[in-house]
Design goal:
This protein has 134 residues and is of the alpha/beta class. Helices cover 22% and strands 32% of the residues. It contains 3 helices and 8 strands. A 4-stranded mixed beta sheet has the order 1-4-3-2, with helices on one face. Strand 2 and strand 3 form a beta hairpin.
C-alpha cells in the first residue's frame, strides 16, 4: 500500500509546478488536463486536481498539512532562511516569523492558492540518529 496526498486546486498544473520546485522535482501530467502529480522520494505522490464543477468544495478548516522536511543541518535557521527566500521567489508567502525550537527551525507558508504547509529543517546534533531525524 502507498500513501498519497491530494490537493484540490483551481489551477492544478501551476500548483503542481510550484510544489515540484520545492521538492526539486517536475510536475507530471495525470489522468487528464485537470490532474497533475509530483513523485516524492519515498515513492508517495502528491496529486493536484480541479474538483468537478458539481462537487461542493470547502477551502477552509483544513486539519492536515503537508510538511516538507530538509536534511538535518548544524545551522537550521540559516538553511531555512535560504529556503524561504526560494519559496517566496516562486509565489509562496510566509505566515508570521520562522520558529526556532530544540528540534530545529520551521516556517508556515502559503502556496499561491492560499493552502498552508510547513517547511522544517531539523537540527543536526553530533551523534544524531539520522533515521530518526528524517
Amino acid at each position: 500500500m502507498k500513501i498519497n496526498f491530494v490537493i484540490a486546486s483551481e489551477n492544478p498544473k501551476e500548483l503542481s509546478e510550484f510544489y515540484a520546485k520545492i521538492n526539486s522535482d517536475k510536475a507530471n501530467k495525470g489522468f487528464n488536463t485537470t490532474h497533475y502529480f509530483i513523485s516524492l522520494s519515498n515513492q508517495s505522490k502528491i496529486h493536484f486536481y480541479r474538483p468537478n464543477e458539481n462537487h461542493e468544495w470547502q477551502r477552509k478548516g483544513n486539519s492536515t498539512s503537508l510538511c516538507f522536511q530538509s536534511e538535518p543541518s548544524e545551522n537550521p535557521s540559516k538553511f531555512l532562511e535560504r529556503w524561504i527566500s526560494e519559496i517566496l521567489e516562486i509565489g509562496g508567502r510566509a505566515i508570521g516569523l520562522p520558529k526556532r525550537a530544540e528540534f530545529g527551525s520551521e516556517q508556515w507558508v502559503l502556496d499561491p492558492e492560499g493552502n498552508k504547509f510547513l517547511i522544517l529543517v531539523p537540527y543536526l546534533y553530533k551523534g544524531s540518529d539520522m533515521e530518526a531525524l528524517m
